[in-house]
From TrEMBL:
This is Protein translocase subunit SecA. Residues 114-271 form the Helicase ATP-binding domain. InterPro entries: Helicase_ATP-bd (IPR014001), P-loop_NTPase (IPR027417), SecA (IPR000185), SecA_DEAD (IPR011115), SecA_motor_DEAD (IPR014018), SecA_preprotein_X-link_dom (IPR011130), SecA_SF2_C (IPR044722), SecA_X-link_sf (IPR036670). The lineage of its organism: Bacteria, Pseudomonadati, Pseudomonadota, Alphaproteobacteria, Hyphomicrobiales. It is found in: Cell membrane; Cytoplasm. Belongs to the SecA family. Gene3D superfamilies: P-loop containing nucleotide triphosphate hydrolases (3.40.50.300), SecA, preprotein cross-linking domain (3.90.1440.10). Part of the Sec protein translocase complex. Interacts with the SecYEG preprotein conducting channel. Has a central role in coupling the hydrolysis of ATP to the transfer of proteins into and across the cell membrane, serving both as a receptor for the preprotein-SecB complex and as an ATP-driven molecular motor driving the stepwise translocation of polypeptide chains across the membrane. HAMAP family: SecA (MF_01382). It is a peripheral membrane protein. The gene is secA. Keywords: ATP-binding, Cell membrane, Cytoplasm, Membrane, Nucleotide-binding, Protein transport, Translocase, Translocation, Transport.
Length: 656
């Protein structure tokens, strides 16, 4: 995406968005070269932002003693000046920063001012966890909204969207701006009203699916003429409706590496229920056929790729056993059996999903939260339901699809923040045109990292977790135990219970007291077991006397598919110069490690002694790097799929 600063607001259409471009391999090569050049010269942008930040802080010092009336008068004049352009972002942030201090009690430090300036210039800002990224986003959003540009602050979940809107509402209102948050359960009318606000906080999934619904609901006719005709006549054609969004003007993506990288390997598919899905009898027959097959002879399970493939022997056996009925068709038979095998071997209750109120509900891999409105495609949802013996939902047909790469590239302006962009800065620059600007922490980090311990099995690992927790709790320190799934959090809870350690569990099936659990997690001697719900965006405040005892201690019980995600969980401690510590207590049979392809190292790691421990640590690092490479390949494959689709539809009009 081309560099664009917010200056004089955007002259917007009714539904502003960048047109889709048909791209070639030459375009990719050019983007790659530009990305390398941009990331290597980012220090020049950083230097310019630092100068502007110093000027802004000097101006803010000059208005610190101004009366509230004078300050609000200056804000009103600022609004007119920003809409007339060109914009002086430093002067604007000086006023907005002082209003923030008086309304929400947050006094921006120089790094936050620098970060806000970088966002307004369309950059990706990397700030350490705990450095106040939410305030940085709010400052930049306020300046952009004052210029007349609607702003979407994109968060990783609804909880954070609602929280950030509530926290910064006094700032926005004092500046004469409106703010709204999109929450789970809001109907179409409520969402349409919320999107009319100057600043909207919304989760990435909710936003992307609202855009897909707008495409489907308007038949893809989101140009000015079509929308004006629809508004004047009250109808835009058969089944048409007015869009919910006001277009894609300016997005500030919080936790940008999670949204733009980690979640960008899976396509976003909008679907509806249709007749003709798998019924219970058909699913039972597919599972019965699957029972006839032997792993590694008739089928191969590839956990790392979450895929099952039938061998020639497996296909032959199925053909021999089925001679009539719906499964006499080879393609239908093999597709059904593959789905049954995936449901049985790769979709585990408490990991990929839970059963709640008699329904299979997907658990978000990255946030640890339930997604009751989402379902798996290609019939997999029905086979998981059959496995769990619950009522089968209808099969879905695709109405529209997109990817995060395509969706966010359509914003007129894009910016982002994260604490962990270093490893993926080149990919973000190449894919989204965002140059990463690193902001130094306001205070030195007080974090202490202990060396990882890798045990041979899960039982040994959980015993070690319980023993370590008991020692820390006796010292009066709070402990946060991070797990990757509901099932793992329940296993950790059992280990603590057997050791007689009081604790609290926060996971997708126990989320009603989330705010209260997080509020207590930093108190002396408090032990909290949590999935990724306690990861990105969660601030755990230390209780009285805890800092003197060493602060919060974080125990990671599994490695994630990227080291960046591990660092996010570690970032719940030692925030803003506070003391804190982290360690990883792992096992060779952790899901990520099991998928590692290390035939020479694995036997050594199963042994005892110093060499075995070194081999185990190496094995964990290799497994994580293999997962990172595989996920990168999946993201590139998704981009290629989008491009092939565009090519096939080239004679049918625009790609969407």
């Amino acid at each position: 995406m081309p560099d664009a600063a917010v200056a004089g607001g955007l002259h917007l259409n009714l539904y502003p968005q960048r047109p889709l471009e048909r791209r070639t391999g030459w375009d990719d090569a050019a983007d790659g070269m530009k990305a390398v050049l941009a990331t290597r010269t980012a220090f020049l942008i950083h230097r310019r932002c630092r100068r502007e930040a110093a000027r802004c802080d000097a101006m803010r010092a000059g208005i610190r003693d101004a009366t509230d009336g004078d300050l609000i008068g200056a804000a009103r004049r600022l609004r007119d000046e920003l809409r007339a352009g060109p914009a002086d972002h430093a002067a604007a942030l000086a006023i907005v920063g002082e209003v923030a201090r008086r309304t929400v009690g947050l006094d921006p430090h120089p790094g936050q001012t620098l970060g806000a300036l970088a966002l307004l210039g369309g950059r990706l800002v990397e700030m350490q966890t705990g450095e106040g990224k939410s305030l940085v986003a709010a400052l930049a959003a306020a300046v952009a909204a004052l210029s007349g540009t609607p702003v979407h602050i994109v968060t990783v979940n609804d909880y954070l969207a609602v929280r950030d809107a509530e926290v910064f509402a006094p700032l926005y209102r004092r500046l004469g701006l409106t703010v709204g948050a999109i929450a789970e359960g809001d109907d179409e009318s409520a969402r349409r009203g919320t999107y009319r606000a100057d600043i909207v906080t919304v989760s990435n999934k909710a936003l992307a699916f609202d855009h897909l619904r707008d495409r489907v609901g308007t038949g893809g006719q989101l140009d000015d003429v079509s929308l004006k005709v629809s508004a004047l006549t009250g109808r835009g054609g058969p089944g048409r409706r007015q869009p919910v969004l006001r277009g894609l003007p300016f997005a500030i993506v919080d936790e940008a590496d999670s949204v733009l990288i980690d979640e960008a390997r899976i396509p976003l598919i909008l679907s509806r229920e249709v007749e003709g899905g798998a019924d219970a009898a058909e699913a039972r027959e597919a599972f019965a056929l699957a029972d006839l097959l032997t792993a590694d002879i008739h089928y191969m399970v590839v956990p790392a790729e979450r895929r099952v493939s039938l061998t020639e022997d497996g296909r032959a056996l199925l053909a021999e056993r089925v001679t009539h009925g719906p499964f006499a068709n080879r393609l239908r038979r093999e597709d059904a059996v593959r789905s049954a095998l995936v449901a049985r071997h790769l979709m585990q209750r408490g990991e990929q999903y839970v059963v709640k109120d008699g329904k299979v509900v997907i658990v978000d891999e990255y946030t640890g939260r339930l997604m009751p409105e989402r379902s798996w495609s290609e019939g997999l949802q029905q086979y998981v339901e059959a496995k769990e013996d619950v009522r089968l939902t209808g099969r879905k047909t695709t109405l529209a699809r997109t990817s995060y790469q395509r969706f966010f590239s359509r914003y007129m302006r894009l910016a982002g923040l994260t604490g962990t962009a270093r490893e993926v800065r080149d990919e973000i620059a190449r894919t989204y045109g965002l140059v990463t600007i690193r902001v130094a922490p306001d205070r030195p980090s007080g974090m202490r990292r202990h060396r990882a311990r890798v045990h041979t099995g899960a039982e040994e690992k959980w015993a070690a977790v319980a023993a370590r927790t008991g020692v820390l709790r006796a010292e009066g320190r709070p402990v946060l135990i991070g797990t990757r799934s509901v099932a793992a959090s329940e296993r950790a809870s059992r280990a603590l219970g057997e050791a007689g350690i009081p604790h609290t569990v926060l996971n997708a099936v126990n989320d009603r007291e989330e705010a209260a659990i997080v509020a207590r997690a930093g108190e002396a001697g408090q032990v909290t077991v949590a999935t990724n719900m306690a990861g990105r965006g969660v601030h755990i405040a230390l209780g009285e006397g805890v800092a003197a005892r060493g602060g919060l201690h974080v125990i990671l019980t599994e490695r994630h598919s990227a080291g960046r995600i591990d660092r996010q969980l570690e970032g719940r401690t030692a925030r803003q110069g506070e003391p804190g510590s982290t360690e990883a207590i792992l096992a060779l049979d952790d899901p990520l490690v099991v998928t590692a392809r290390t035939p020479l190292l694995a036997p050594i790691a199963r042994g005892r002694g110093f060499l075995a421990m070194v081999a185990r640590r190496c094995l964990v690092r290799i497994a994580q790097r293999q997962a990172e490479r595989m996920h990168y390949a999946a993201r590139r494959a998704l981009i290629r799929h989008d491009r092939r689709t565009d090519t096939m539809l080239a004679f049918g009009g625009p790609p969407e």
